[in-house]
């Protein structure tokens, strides 16, 4: 039971985080609108929270899309390639994902270190800025993990039908 729950959580980690972030963002925006309507004042800090949450939402959503194979691709061409070419394309795609998101991870960590060393605080809430910046390397690593999972899944599908055809 616990193993199944942990498995479900791992498979739906990004969606769960995104749903929670969207809920928090919607509640903050709603409360801000109500307060502004009733008092003619607004909570300026809410924009900071919403923008920070949007960065997490974007990267976690990207990771979820990688895991489910929902990113735009050249599926039409890919499916018409011979199996060895599809495997080469999969490896090259994964290498590009690692290059792009590995670079984001590296520079994100570099920026976090700078923000910690300089003790940079956010403007409105004066929380450590690295909390918002953490979304970049964290989301990037998650994208790379999900890209690997998707590639392994695709390779598993590639091997499955060929064995069935060979036994006929």
Automatic annotation (TrEMBL):
Record's bilayer topology term: Multi-pass membrane protein
Keywords from the named record: Cell inner membrane, Cell membrane, Membrane, Transmembrane, Transmembrane helix, Transport
All copies of domain Tripartite ATP-independent periplasmic transporters DctQ component, residue ranges: 25-155
GO BP of this protein: C4-dicarboxylate transport
Ranges that cross the membrane: 20-39, 51-70, 91-110, 130-148
InterPro entries, per the entry: DctQ, TRAP_DctQ
Localization: Cell inner membrane
Pfam families assigned to the protein according to its UniProt record, in alphabetical order: DctQ
Main location: membrane
Domain of life: Bacteria
Any GO MF annotation of the entry: transmembrane transporter activity
Any one annotated GO CC term: plasma membrane
Coiled-coil ranges per UniProt: none
Family according to the record: Belongs to the TRAP transporter small permease family.
Name of this chain's protein: TRAP-type C4-dicarboxylate transport system, small permease component
């Amino acid at each position: 039971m616990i193993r199944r729950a942990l498995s479900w959580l791992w498979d739906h980690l990004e969606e769960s985080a995104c749903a929670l972030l969207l809920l928090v963002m919607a509640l903050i925006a709603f409360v801000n609108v109500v307060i502004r309507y009733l008092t003619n004042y607004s909570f300026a800090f809410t924009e900071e929270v919403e923008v920070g949450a949007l960065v997490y939402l974007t990267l976690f959503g990207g990771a979820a899309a990688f895991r489910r194979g929902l990113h735009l691709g050249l599926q039409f061409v890919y499916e018409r390639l011979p199996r060895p070419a599809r495997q080469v394309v999969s490896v090259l795609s994964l290498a590009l994902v690692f290059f792009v998101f590995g670079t984001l991870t590296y520079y994100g960590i570099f920026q976090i270190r700078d923000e910690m060393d300089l003790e940079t605080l956010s403007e409105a809430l004066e929380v450590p800025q690295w909390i918002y910046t953490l979304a970049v390397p964290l989301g990037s690593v998650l994208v790379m993990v999900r890209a690997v999972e998707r590639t392994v899944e695709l390779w598993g599908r590639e091997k499955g039908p060929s064995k069935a055809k060979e036994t006929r």
